[in-house]
Amino acid sequence: MSVTDSPAARLQALFEGHRLTPTQRRIAHSMVRRAADVPFLSSVELAELAGVSQLAELAGVSQPSVTRFAVALGFDGYPALRRHLREVAPAEPAGGPESYNEYQQAVEAEIENLRHLAQALADPRPVRRAGRLLAASRPLPVLGLRAAASQAYGFAYFAAKVHPDVRLLNEGGTMIEDRIDGAVRAGASALLCFALPRHPREVVDTLAYARGAGLRVVTVADSAFAPVAKHSDLLLPAAVGTGLAFDTACAPMLLGRVLLEAMCDDLPDAQARLEEFDAAAAARGLFVD
To answer: For the chain, what is the largest distance between any 2 Cα atoms, rounded to a whole number of angstroms?
Structure first.
């Protein structure tokens, strides 16, 4: 089955072009993540599934919200939406071992997130396009605040080994716009952002400022429906795990490494830079074998 024929891809296509409220976007995101199961869920079960989000209590995801969501998509109600989904879904829902404890369930959920990422990467064109944009930007600002700060740091650490000028933006405050202005004056043409829940307002505002300054914005986010989507020229989704007290972000981290690979493909001297670093590291005794 190709990525465009997968249940998740069909759901994604169904939601595109509709103006959804924040609560409806969370329902849509939950449905994409559990695409094989959704046609067999009641409206109550779907509301509970969407309620896994950290914002659910504030958003008030409930059974009536699911009904309004179905109507927003053009259906008479949730039963009509579910009938439609059953026509394009596998014959039976995907199941899993019921004996897993909560820690194993969290790991299994992350494995499923990685499977979804692998399906998305069956079409490599978005990542290759992002790699070209990032490689061409000199300097290259990399933004990630709060929960996404470690993702931005990890990308910037490795990117600096092959890219001549990487500028990490992992601390917010009034100076961040000054640093974006400085990058633009130095010749930057693109910005890479890692955006993970809960999404800080400052990230949304910073991306809006960056685009206003003329930068193309490439964003790695937890969902195509994330609040940063409207301020991104190219958004690459990678789901986070929500089964533990704090979200887990294995898929966004791996997608960041894939972006690094794509960027290296568009940097003709990337291999030479890596070899130069390895030689210098050996001469300095930097690493212990």
So the answer is: 70
DSSP 8-state secondary structure symbol assigned to residue 240: P
Structure tokens at 112: 């499923």
Could you give the CA distance from residue 69 to residue 65 in angstroms, rounded to a whole number? 6
pLDDT digits (tens, 9 = 90+) for 154-187: 999 999 999 999 999 999 898 999 999 999 999 9
Distant-in-sequence contacts of 74-83, Cβ < 8 A, 24+ apart = 74/18, 78/43, 78/46, 82/38, 82/39, 82/41
The span from the CA of 163 to the CA of 159, in Å, is 6
Lowest mean pLDDT among 4-8, 11-15, 31-35, 239-243: 4-8
Rounded to an integer, what distance in angstroms lies between the CA atom of residue 79 and that of residue 213? Answer: 46
CA distance 135 to 115: 27
> In angstroms, how far is CA 73 from the centroid of its own chain?
23
Q: Is residue 166 within 8 Å of 140, Cβ to Cβ?
A: yes
Confidence (pTM): 0.73
- Comparing CA positions, the residue from 230, 272, 256, 266 lying closest to residue 134 is 266
pLDDT tens by residue, 90-107: 544 444 555 678 888 889
